[in-house]
Design a protein that fits this description.
- The complex is a heterotrimer of chains A (315), B (329) and C (323).
- Chain A is built from twelve helices and ten strands.
- In chain A, helix 3 packs across helix 4 and helix 9 packs antiparallel against helix 11.
- Chain A is globular and about 60 Å long.
- Chain B has one domain: MetI-like fold, CATH 1.10.3720.10.
- Chains in contact: A-B, A-C, B-C.
- Chains B and C meet through helix 1, helix 6, helix 7, helix 8 and helix 10 of B and helix 1, helix 4, helix 5, helix 8 and helix 10 of C.
């Protein structure tokens, strides 16, 4: 499930390079956002996170389990359930038409109408993300009947077929049910659903974690291709740092609710600043390192040496 | 398809079991039911040899015929539709008595049960959807009502609405004095009028179960991933509640509906006793009181057949509603 | 028409159940909540009444020429139309009904455990045939069968009634238990025991059975409720145990004595009320057990929600934006 860039120590250049730091025309800005779980004792899941996502950019969000990356995504999307609560900060969406929307200020019907149209989400583990008792077509169609009520029936069905073909699934699968599809196919359907309304931002929460590497590669290929076709921005959340090095423009490393480092992918890989980043980079077995070296010491020695970290410290 | 065949096979097996039970019980029980029946019949009129033979096949004879031979003959008789002659309704054959009383039972009990199921599921959906609303407080009340013995509740309601406030009639299926059986509006309205109170008691006493079951399943289902997806998609809450949550949550209730059909039948017997309703349950009770074994066995068979048939229908309905069952088989 | 979450299809498909280890028996006991407390105290009080009451009251069958009289004048709950002491009858009836409930409960437990648990655990042909047998018994309507069987016997004893009731009620429990056992059977710790060579019956008693206890308890409670209500129904129809006092037979005589029409509420109401109270108490107990068996219900209980340190305003705004 983890791959290091096997071709070269440098990651391949991303298709749309953007400078590190904030972008001049961001599509989404997260300003000083904090989320707490109000249980006893209170858990500070996200602490003062500030990020901005450029138009058409791929921002990777990496960190170990429990660091708050999913919570952040849910918070931005207003999908948090009690006892999770946004305690400070805000998330602002900057539409390409020029206006701004404070996501926290949306309520009720406005929030519902906003959903999926500008910001869509692909969830972790598509095993159970599809309704088991209605067909794939029904689930794709109801996006349109809800958000585009003026669409005619024939046009709707045509569009659903198009969406499926775009993600590499045969149109005939429209009449299938969730249990008849393989894991990879289900995840593609989820991606197709997310793209239905041509969103400007796609948040993907570990979309390939539950799939085997071959399927993962195909799906990532699709995502990259679609992105270059349609130009949406992506926040890609995963614990798989090497994966992000492959596909992201910039990467944010999260730890215990805070963003500890934010840089563009190449810089992060070659000149990591934070100790934690260095440790993360070294924690993946390398395809090119000495055999057995990772197992013995628990860190990838060549990477650490390059990054200039003392082996003793890293352990 | 294989699933349907499996189910059919099962119901055939159950039917066979019921027929066999029907055959064995009178032969196992103490006493001599044949003599009792014949003597009772004789008080009503002459007993022809064919009648006697039919009774013997049903209930057992002294003859030295081996049991399995009697069994074959018994099955033959049953499948030709001959269930014997009734004592209570002499000289009407049992089959005819049943065909006259069965529609009343199916009509009243069937409609009342379906109403109870639909309303209960509906209320349960709402209660589960809006957790913590006032509906949640209704549930303990309706479940308390379920622990109340049905006939006790029915008698009290009958007393209240039949004697004290004379809103509903005290007994019967329709007004025998002013209307006669036929597809006329006076008859139909009379039937509806007489059936309202019994149906009401059935609904009140059983709605709690459906409500509670559905609510619990809704609460369970709402924590599933596909509900989160639906919410993120910005679907209208009504659609999420119906097509995403309720469609999945109702499945165990439908399975439970099939199981509860047996209890529905049991309840119907008590209902008809309380309200003197002219259905198959009343006939069964009369049969028991007069030792009319032929009628009793015949009714048992028909009741079992109806329950099996209804179960089969619900099972088939389940395959339509839950696409996963088609794959499982 | 009792229906709860203990549907066999859930039991079979429920993979979200907490993975209990064979050792933590303490998790089998439900936490004391208000519901459970009320249920236990009401049920306990009635049981006590049934146990001790008959020793303290007078003779329930003694007739008097007082006739139908309201409470008062030495009779706590008045008299029947033949001058019998209703309160004394109630005490004996409580004992009778509870006895039937207990006997049926135990019989049902034994039968359903045998056909459900053992069958599912052994697997193979045994499981298939037991399951088929249970399903057939389940589908054949119970009350008509009971009526038919008991009509052949003119003088029915309490034991016959209890036996016949148990015969028609074990099948439902067996099915639920089977579903649950099937899912348990493939849990890791059971497989581990098998691999390490422990004998079947030992695995059954040490690993499997303790985790079945909450479910078994719930099924027994159901069986008792069913038995008591069933016996009441049978007696009301005139098919009950002759010559002994149960809540059902009291109601039968009350109905035949036209108690309600004559306004003799003290004869008609108390037995039914006792039935309802006992049934309600047992249902409350069952709810609490339900919450253990179905953990998804637990997180939604009021108690858990109260433990969140959220202000009302926060809860309100949370309600607005999500489901």
């Amino acid at each position: 499930m983890t791959t290091t860039p096997a071709s070269a120590p440098m990651p391949a250049a991303a298709s749309a390079a953007t400078p590190a730091g904030t972008s001049p025309h961001p599509v989404l800005t997260i300003e000083d956002l904090s989320i707490d779980y109000l249980v006893d004792p209170v858990v500070h899941a996200v602490r003062n996170v500030t990020l901005s996502l450029g138009r058409g950019e791929v921002l990777g969000l990496a960190g170990e389990s429990g660091c708050g990356k999913s919570t952040l995504a849910y918070g931005v999307n207003r999908l948090l359930k009690p006892p999770a609560v946004i305690t400070s900060g805000r998330a602002v969406f900057h539409s390409r038409e020029g206006y701004e929307i404070d996501l926290g200020a949306l309520h009720g019907e406005d929030l519902r109408a906003f959903r999926w149209d500008r910001i869509a989400m692909v969830f972790q583990g598509a095993m159970n993300s599809l309704n088991p008792v209605i067909s794939v077509q029904a689930q794709l169609e109801d996006i349109f009947t809800t958000h585009r009520p003026d669409m005619g029936r024939a046009e709707r069905v045509e569009r659903c077929g198009e969406l499926l073909e775009r993600v590499g699934v045969d149109r005939a699968r429209l009449s299938s049910f969730a249990h008849e599809l393989s894991g990879g196919m289900r995840q593609r359907v989820m991606i197709a659903m997310a793209m239905a309304l041509d969103p400007q931002v796609m948040i993907m929460d570990e979309p390939t974690t539950a799939l085997d590497v071959v399927v993962q590669r195909e799906i990532l290929r699709e995502i990259t291709r679609l992105r270059s076709e349609l130009g949406f921005a992506v926040i890609f959340i995963t614990h798989d740092l090497p994966l992000l090095l492959e596909i992201s423009d910039r990467i944010a490393i999260m730890r215990e609710g805070e963003v500890v480092e934010l840089a563009d992918a190449m810089t992060l890989y070659t000149r990591p600043q934070h100790e934690y980043t260095k440790k993360l980079l070294g924690s993946f077995p390398s395809l090119t390192g000495a055999r057995g070296g990772f197992i013995r010491s628990g860190v990838d020695e060549p990477v650490l040496v390059e990054a200039g970290v003392d082996e003793e410290e890293a352990r | 398809m294989r699933y349907v065949l499996q189910k059919l096979g099962f119901y055939v097996a159950a039917l066979w079991a019921a027929l066999t039970l029907n055959f064995l019980i009178p032969r196992w029980m103490p006493g001599d039911p044949v003599d009792i029946m014949i003597s009772k019949l004789a008080t009503r009129g002459p007993v022809t040899p064919s009648t006697r033979h039919a009774i013997e096949l049903l209930l057992g004879t002294d003859s030295q015929q081996p049991l399995w031979q009697q069994y074959i003959a018994y099955l033959g008789q049953i499948f030709s539709g001959n269930l014997g002659t009734s004592v209570v309704y002499f000289p009407t054959p049992v089959a005819k008595v049943i065909s006259q009383t069965l529609p009343w039972t199916i009509g009243l009990i069937g409609i009342a049960t379906i109403i109870s199921f639909l309303v209960g599921i509906g209320l349960g959906t709402l209660a589960g959807w809006k957790r913590g609303s006032w509906l949640d407080n209704v549930i303990p009340v309706t479940t308390m009502l379920q622990s109340v013995p049905y006939f006790w509740l029915a008698l009290i309601l009958l007393f209240a609405f039949g004697s004290v406030w004379q809103v509903f009639p005290l007994n019967g299926g329709y007004d025998v004095y002013t209307t006669s059986i036929g597809l006329s509006w006076p008859f139909i309205s009379s039937v509806l009028y007489y059936g309202t109170l019994p149906a009401l008691t059935i609904v009140i006493s059983s709605i709690g179960g459906w409500m509670l079951g559905m609510r619990n399943m809704m609460v369970s289902t709402l924590s599933e991933d596909y509900i989160l997806t639906a919410e993120a998609k910005g679907l209208k809450p009504g659609r999420i509640m119906r097509t995403y949550a309720a469609r999945n949550a109702v499945l165990p209730s439908i399975a439970g509906f099939a199981i509860s059909l047996g209890f529905v039948v049991a309840g119907s017997i008590v209902t008809e006793a309380v309200f003197s309703y002219p259905g198959i349950g009343s006939a069964l009770l009369q049969a028991v009181n007069s030792n009319d074994y032929a009628l009793m066995q015949g009714i048992f068979l028909v009741i079992t057949l109806s329950v099996l048939g209804a179960n089969l229908l619900v099972d088939l309905l389940y395959t339509i509603i839950d696409p996963r069952t088609r794959a499982r088989a | 028409m009792a229906l709860t979450t203990q549907d066999p299809t859930i039991a079979e498909s429920e993979s979200h159940l907490p993975a209990p280890s064979g050792r933590t028996r303490r998790r089998s006991l439900p936490p004391m909540t208000l519901k459970l407390g009320i249920g236990l105290s009401i049920a306990g009080a009635i049981a006590l009444f049934g146990l001790i009451g008959p020793y303290l009251v007078g003779d329930p069958s003694r007739v008097d020429n007082v006739g139908l009289s309201a409470p008062g004048g030495g009779f706590l709950l008045g008299t029947t139309q033949t001058g019998q002491d209703v309160f004394a009858q109630l005490a004996h009836a409580t004992r009778g009904s509870l006895t039937i409930g207990l006997v049926v409960g135990v019989l049902t437990l034994v039968l359903s455990t045998f056909f459900g648990v053992v069958g599912a655990y052994v697997g193979g042909v045994v499981d298939e045939s037991f399951s088929l047998f249970s399903n057939v018994m389940l589908v054949i309507p119970g009350l008509p069968l009971v009526i038919v069987i008991s009509s052949y016997v003119p003088d029915k004893s309490v034991w016959l009634i209890a036996f016949v009731l148990a015969l028609t009620s074990w099948a439902g429990s067996a099915r639920v238990l089977r579903g649950f056992t099937l899912s348990l059977r493939n849990r890791d710790y059971v497989l581990a025991s098998r691999v390490s060579g422990e004998r079947s019956w030992r695995i059954l008693t040490v690993e499997v059975l303790p985790n079945l206890i909450p479910l078994l308890a719930s099924q027994v409670v159901f069986a008792v409720i069913f038995a008591i209500l069933g016996e009441a129904g049978l007696s009301f129809l005139g098919l009950g145990a002759s010559g002994s006092f149960t809540w059902g037979t009291m109601l039968y005589y009350a109905q035949n004595g036209l108690a309600l029409r004559l306004g003799a509420w003290w004869w008609f109401i108390p037995p039914g009320l006792m039935l309802a109270l006992f049934g309600a108490a047992l249902s409350l107990i069952n709810f609490s057990i339900d919450e253990i068996i179905n953990p998804k219900l637990r997180s939604q209980t009021r108690a858990v929600r109260r433990s969140w340190r959220m202000s009302r305003a926060q809860l309100q705004s949370a309600k607005e934006s999500t489901l």
